[in-house]
Putative glycosyltransferase (Zea mays), 579 residues
Amino acid sequence: MPASAATTTTTSSAAPSPSLLPCLHVHAHGRASAAAACCLLVLVTFLVVAACWWDPRTREASSWFLSPPRSAPSSFSSLTSAGGVGGGGEHLLATASSYYSAAAGFRNSTGKEVHQEVRGHGGDDRGFLSFVNSSFGYDEAPPPSAPAPASPVTGGSDEVIIQSTPPQVERRRDDVKLERLELGLARARSAIMEAIRKKDKVSPLPDKDYVPMGPVYRNAHVFHRSYLEMERQLKVYVYEEGEPPVFHDGPCRSIYSTEGRFIHSMETETEAEEGRRLRTRDPARAHVFFLPFSVVKMVQTIYEPGSRDMAPLKRTVADYVRVLSSKYPYWNRSLGADHFMLSCHDWGPYVSSANAQLFGNSIRVLCNANTSEGFDPARDVSLPQVNLRSDAVERQVGGPSASRRPVLAFFAGGNHGPVRPALLAHWGPGGRRGGDPDVRVSEYLPRGGGAPSYADMMRRSRFCLCPGGYEVASPRLAEALYLGCVPVVVDDGEYALPFADVLDWDAFALRLRVADIPRLKEILAAVSPRQYIRMQRRVRMVRRHFMLHGGPPRRYDAFHMILHSVWLRRLNVRIAAAE
Ligand SMILES: *[C@@H]1O[C@H](CO)[C@@H](O)[C@H](O)[C@H]1NC(C)=O
Ligand SMILES: *[C@@H]1O[C@H](CO)[C@@H](O)[C@H](O)[C@H]1NC(C)=O
Ligand SMILES: *[C@@H]1O[C@H](CO)[C@@H](O)[C@H](O)[C@H]1NC(C)=O
Ligand SMILES: *[C@@H]1O[C@H](CO)[C@@H](O)[C@H](O)[C@H]1NC(C)=O
């Protein structure tokens, strides 16, 4: 398979139909052909994050988890700052945010922001949703080890937002359950805030599998605390309505595999591992609600190839939300804010615009995480793209040390989208600086005659260039991490990187502006061997968070990191019971 074919992010045609094994039958014995394409890349938001955290103007309105500020002048780290990664620096899970307070900004289907008060059924001025701000719940709620208070949620006088006693007993029971859930979340917030406050004066939390540590994390201890809180508390309800293949199913392989894998893992999350079951069958106990549709499956089954008519896809999603919101009280209760959808297809964001509340309020977990197209890192989740060619990624993992990587930079892939033409025009065959033995950039790789495969090239390269395709995401990012190649994200800052609220991408990846493509070789060559070795070591450390295993998900893997991202965003929202 030519590299370009394997890595193309399909936008203009129906999705490829990879050989689909149901994910549930997948076991770890698969043989990964490391042959096809992919590269990698990643990026770094260190400067932005650090700048924002320290900027007193943004600090005031800070929310407690990362939301890369939209107005930041630059989200690129210079190499000099990359060289400083790991030294000092306040790497917190929480950082500045201009996130909503009592009013939510809605975005309509064109991606325009429409500010609008979200009001409760009762028209209460305090708003139906009260988004958590930096002072809510942290000082008032007891630390996690303290016994649970028996009293209702307290806090500032404003913080009691359970508004009144509804007429029906049934409904009141739901409200009491909601109140209890929110109390649990307030405790988790306060545990996390406590971890933030004490960050350097703590001993690691016990964990039989893994203790996050080191500079790949913005704050390893805070992440660990939050992760354990998630395991202790988080309950996800998966709506049962809808028929496969469009619902409850998804691609287990191909460049869209993270979409199918997540859906299948969620659907089959039944084995309680030491009580760490994240799925609940009782919606009244759920913190978040999953809409289990697959955009990739819709494209394969509903979309008329070549028609460019995406209306049927949108109708499917709009109908689905309509059914759920009339059948259950949960959607209307939060206007969708505690619901999430997930898609790795380029069209995911577009399809999410089928319902204004889905687009504007819900948590959208998307590979196509382009902040210039309405992706909001404070509310949405960036989903890593992984081109899974076999049952699990284990066979796709591993690579030599820096000294056995003769090539400085590598890219192979189709010439499309907004970034790659500039890259190929400069460094590709026939390009202005084409043919440079240190910078191997081409659409196709030579085949046969013992020519190195795509994966071989990644293993032989120190840096793997990861420009997006038609859209921002690229499977190259994860592949670079798997193969021990330091990823280089090439974009103009619009790609919201996966798990950036927890991971400090600057520690293990570089980010280049499109305008810097001509200077690419000089920039990469300026990274000292010492710094490179450090970054490569961190690439190996961060890998576990991008792993998709055959069989059931494992702690700290991609499935759990996705859920952790959802958990963080759910923590930033407080749902009030209806009147
Ligand atoms: C956060 O909550 C506090 C206490 O309720 C309030 O005084 C403050 O104005 C809120 N801040 C924002 C940004 O909403
Ligand atoms: C979306 O919002 C923008 C800005 O308010 C407005 O001009 C546009 O007409 C809206 N589009 C739709 C489809 O509502
Ligand atoms: C939720 O709101 C919609 C639109 O306002 C309404 O049609 C639906 O019946 C409501 N659902 C419930 C369960 O009350
Ligand atoms: C992100 O979206 C903007 C606006 O649609 C677009 O111009 C840009 O090319 C996109 N970026 C990438 C890397 O696809």
